[in-house]
Design brief:
Distance between the termini: 167 Å
Strand order of the largest sheet: 1-3-4-5-6-9-10-11
Strand content: 25-35%
CATH architecture of the largest domain: Beta Barrel
CATH topology of the largest domain: Lipocalin
Largest sheet: 8 strands, antiparallel, barrel
Order of helices and strands: HHHHEEEEEEEEEEE
Number of domains: 2
Radius of gyration: 61 Å
Structural class: alpha+beta
Number of helices: 4
Helix content: 25-40%
Length: 248
């Protein structure tokens, strides 16, 4: 029995010494494959060291992100945002202007009384004949020139041209303009039209006709009854203004 006890103690002491030696060898990176099955490694492997390093790096990154989040939250809490008022609504568009009344269509039947009494100068648009037995006398030779044709043509603004033709072929041409004396409108029968020459009317024979101012009132037959006045000579005469027919 004593021998067995001594032998057991010797074997135990031998095991303790062997384990201590293996631990020392492992700490010095010396591995013995024979003992790996019986004794654990004392030093961590390269994979364990790398994993531990990554874990430490992730912990540091987490702490840094946490600090950044708290700092950003504090900065946002300190901001004071001003409310931007909404833009004012756009100004309403102005009301459209009323459409002008259409000009009366030229009508060979006569003058439109409504347009005439309203003072609508567009009623003159077109060509007109003036019935007149107009004669001139040359003060030097005494020669009489008889004008049997007198025509005026106007645009929608009352601007126009006139032509007079005599029996001997002499023609006189020049500008004319028309306007109503009460353009704001007048009672029926009270509106008057004035047709004015800017100066003396020049003729093809070298002569001229003294300036004329023609004042017209609406007649009952679709024409206008006019008075022809020459300021320079004081001469007066009557003339009838009627729209030219299509076949002339």
């Amino acid at each position: 029995m004593l021998r067995a006890a001594i032998l057991g103690m010797a074997l135990g002491l031998l095991a303790i010494v062997g384990a201590a030696g293996y631990a020392a060898l492992a700490a010095c990176r010396i591995e013995l494959a024979v003992l790996d099955r019986w004794l654990p490694q004392s030093c961590p492997s390269d994979a364990d060291i790398a994993a531990a390093a990554r874990l430490d790096a992730l912990r540091d990154l987490n702490l840094a992100l946490t600090r950044d989040i708290r700092r950003t939250e504090n900065e946002l809490a300190a901001l004071q945002c001003e409310a931007v008022p909404p833009a004012p609504p756009p100004a309403p568009l102005p009301a459209p202007l009323p459409e002008p009344e259409p000009a009366p269509a030229p009508d060979s039947a006569g003058i439109d009384p409504g347009s005439w009494n309203r003072g609508d100068i567009r009623v003159l648009d077109g060509c007109w004949e003036l019935d007149s037995d107009f004669r001139t006398r040359d003060i030097q030779t005494g020669r009489i020139t008889h004008y049997t044709q007198w025509e005026m043509c106007f645009d929608r603004q009352g601007n126009g041209r006139e032509t007079m033709t005599a029996t001997n072929g002499t023609t006189c041409r020049g500008a004319v303009s028309g306007q109503f004396l009460d353009p704001s409108g007048a009672a029926a029968g009270d509106q008057r039209l004035e047709v004015r020459e800017p100066g003396n009317l020049r003729c093809s024979d070298g002569g001229y006709i003294h300036q004329r101012i023609i004042t017209c009132e609406l007649a009952g037959d679709g024409s206008a009854s006019c008075v022809n006045f020459q300021p320079e000579t004081g001469g007066r005469g009557e003339v009838r203004l009627r729209r030219r027919t299509e076949d002339q």
